[in-house]
Amino acid sequence: MNEIKEIVEDENKIGTVIADDIEFRGRLVFKNSLKIKGLFEGKIETKGHLVIGQEAVVSADIKAGIVSVNGTVNGKIKAGQRIELYNKSVTSCDLIAPELQIEKGSIFNGTCIMADK
Question: Which H or E element spans position 57?
Answer without folding.
Answer: strand 57-69
